[in-house]
Write a structure and sequence with these properties.
The protein has 192 residues and is mainly α. Helices cover 67% and strands 0% of the residues. Helix 4 runs antiparallel to helix 7, helix 5 runs antiparallel to helix 6 and helix 5 packs parallel to helix 7.
Length: 192
């Protein structure tokens, strides 16, 4: 990859074409007000709506469409705390790839392994209540990680030695919750 080429996000999505904070005209902070983010996205989406460009030349319509795509991608990026943290790290010239970064704490890896085993056991037992209990516990831990990460980003300069392992932990939690939700859906769909 050429020097200066943005790396894809850890979730495999392509890198943003531009800085998502700049695209939406928002301050580059980790703790974004969800209502402000939503409102700004809605304002820009309305301004770039294809109906507003119906009678305009093709080049203007294409430009508005491209800008609308950027706005939507910036919104998706900033709405997701993992991707928002990655965008902030990129702004500070930090790598955001999952591999090759700060190694995960062994105790965290043990907890992740134990939770995944418990999730597999709950799935095999068709125990939706156990799946939901595991999800609840992970969501609670995720909230604590988000609070710690917000504190680390507020420091000047940001505490990257704290942010990077927290980001790794947050990624584990996101994957676990996605898997747990899929299992819940699967178990809810099957008659008991």
């Amino acid at each position: 990859m050429a020097a200066g080429t943005p790396l894809p996000s850890a979730d495999g999505s392509p890198p943003p074409l531009s800085d998502p904070f700049e695209t939406l005209g928002l301050a580059p902070v980790f703790e974004l007000d969800p209502a402000t983010l939503e409102r700004r996205h809605r304002e820009l989406s309305r301004a770039l709506h294809p109906d507003r460009y119906a009678g305009r030349p093709s080049s203007e319509r294409q430009q508005a469409l491209g800008r609308a795509i950027e706005v939507n991608e910036a919104f998706r990026t900033l709405r997701d705390p993992v991707r928002r943290a990655e965008a902030l790290l990129v702004r500070h010239g930090r790598a955001v790839a999952e591999t090759g970064g700060v190694p995960a704490d062994p105790s965290l890896l043990m907890q992740v392994m134990e939770r995944r085993e418990a999730l597999g056991d709950a799935r095999r037992a068709k125990d939706v209540a156990a799946v939901r209990g595991l999800s609840r516990a992970v969501r609670e831990r995720e909230q604590r990680v988000l609070a710690e990460m917000a504190k680390a980003f507020v420091q000047l300069p940001p505490d990257f030695t704290r942010i990077e392992p927290l980001l790794g932990e947050l990624r584990y939690h996101h994957r676990f919750l996605e898997e747990a939700l899929a299992i819940e859906d699967e178990l809810d769909a099957k008659p008991a």
